[in-house]
Amino acid sequence: MKLKLYAALLVLLCWVAPASADDKPGVVVADVVEQIVTVQAVNYTERTVTIALPTGEVTTIKVPDESKNLDQVHAGSRFRVVYAQSVVIAVIGEKSEPSAGSVDRMELAAKGDIPGGTLVSVKEITARVEGMENAARTVSVRGPSGELRRYVVGPEVQRFDNIQVGDTVVLRYTEAIGFKMIEDK
User: Fold this and answer.
1) What's the domain range around 173?
2) Which of 46, 61, 66, 98 is deepest in the core (most CB within 10 A)?
């Protein structure tokens, strides 16, 4: 399951990865967490499952209508869950109009199989650089809503001086979760 989740995440990241010029700045931040959660309650009518995390925190999640194996889940069921998220920010030299978009993918176990699945969501925003202050390390960008926003850029971003007015900034946020019920022995 973990390999399948990582493969799905890698494919989506490559599929929507921005073409970045080598001399333009960019940064990638990623995190992966794996844990076992325990089902505390199931509401079959509302299609919700209340789970306890290893930290003791309790949360209720809505089960998608597409999930065909909710009838196998009960209080005490345990699931192995892998959660991954990444943020990619890149400045590309090509000029493009500000935009926003998203791609969501879901793959769930077939009816009768062990409950589980993979969900991946990718959101991308493209903005245009409208202003620069190199000494203050600030950049002003105009996104798809038309609003102008000013950001301070930290010293960890290399090649900041290579950003130019008119460049395009791409921000991509990816979340992926893989889960599979651990069979009772």
Assistant:
1) 2-182
2) 98
